[in-house]
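User: quick one, sequence for these tokens?
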């Protein structure tokens, strides 16, 4: 299939079914700024599907410092509305997730998840969490609680026309203290999205972020982001993406730290995609140069 932008992608501000998750506000810009720029490591991802619809995803990573890790995940849907996921990695961490959607109430998704600690750490379980996600045409709400860690979080998003706004909270039940809070406002027009965010931490204070994403044409996208940290430091980043043909996409990114990021993504076949990425210092400091290769296989 062509990598050219669909009408949906170009009209990124138009409403779909519900306002979407809190983490999705500003996602078009953040994805363009971060995806396909994996440097300092080489990765391989293999996705396969068995005849009984069980999907296996294998990931391997080799970092520039010589460290390597891998993971295997299996996913199946044993019944309508029920999804089961199991994952194990080279650190010995095993995780299992059960997701039930629309079983209790239309638009309600319930999640139960658990994970074991790494082999070099004691204990039977490191995490046991449950969550609920409710989506309607007007509101999207999500909450999650980890019993072992005592970590609770919630978020809500609503919309009015092309404008979406949301808020999120993270709370430490064991300490009885607020860990973090955030608010976002997003406005979507024909082919562009503007997002403003404010994030707070009781220890470090407030930080601010504004981003813009524009689908200039079916073959070109641009995005920029301006951030002000809690210590009043400003960061700026801008990125452009160009579709050269049906199988090739290039991206270039520059930020206020003087770093230039480049990526070249090529679809070699129906089942194989490779991405080459590099990060270079504009001031020609070779010690800051990093490269990476990502190979994706989906036979």
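Assistant:
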């Amino acid at each position: 299939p062509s990598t050219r932008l669909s009408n949906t992608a170009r009209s990124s501000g138009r409403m779909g079914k519900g306002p979407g998750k809190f983490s999705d506000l500003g996602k078009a810009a953040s994805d363009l700024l971060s995806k396909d720029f994996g440097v300092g490591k080489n990765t391989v991802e293999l996705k396969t599907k068995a005849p009984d619809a069980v999907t296996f995803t294998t990931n391997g990573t080799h970092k520039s410092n010589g460290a390597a890790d891998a993971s295997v995940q299996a996913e199946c849907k044993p019944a309508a509305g029920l999804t089961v996921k199991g994952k194990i990695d080279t650190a010995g961490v095993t995780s299992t997730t059960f997701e039930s959607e629309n079983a209790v109430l239309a638009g309600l998704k319930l999640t139960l998840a658990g994970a074991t600690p790494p082999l070099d750490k004691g204990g039977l379980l490191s995490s046991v969490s449950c969550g609920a996600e409710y989506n309607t045409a007007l509101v999207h709400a999500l909450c999650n609680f980890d019993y072992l860690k005592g970590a609770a979080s919630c978020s809500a998003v609503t919309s009015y026309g092309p404008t979406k706004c949301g808020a999120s909270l993270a709370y430490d039940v064991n300490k009885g203290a607020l860990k973090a809070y955030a608010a976002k406002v997003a406005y979507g027009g024909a082919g562009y999205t503007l997002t403003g965010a404010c994030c707070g931490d009781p220890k470090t204070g407030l930080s601010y972020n504004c981003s813009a994403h524009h689908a200039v044409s079916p073959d070109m996208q641009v995005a920029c982001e301006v951030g002000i940290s809690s210590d009043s430091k400003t960061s700026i980043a801008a990125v452009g993406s160009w579709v050269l043909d049906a199988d090739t996409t290039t991206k270039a990114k520059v930020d206020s730290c003087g770093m230039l990021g480049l990526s070249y993504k090529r679809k070699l076949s129906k089942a194989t995609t490779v991405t080459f990425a590099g990060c270079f210092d504009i001031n020609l400091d070779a010690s800051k140069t990093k490269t990476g290769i990502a190979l994706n296989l989906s036979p």
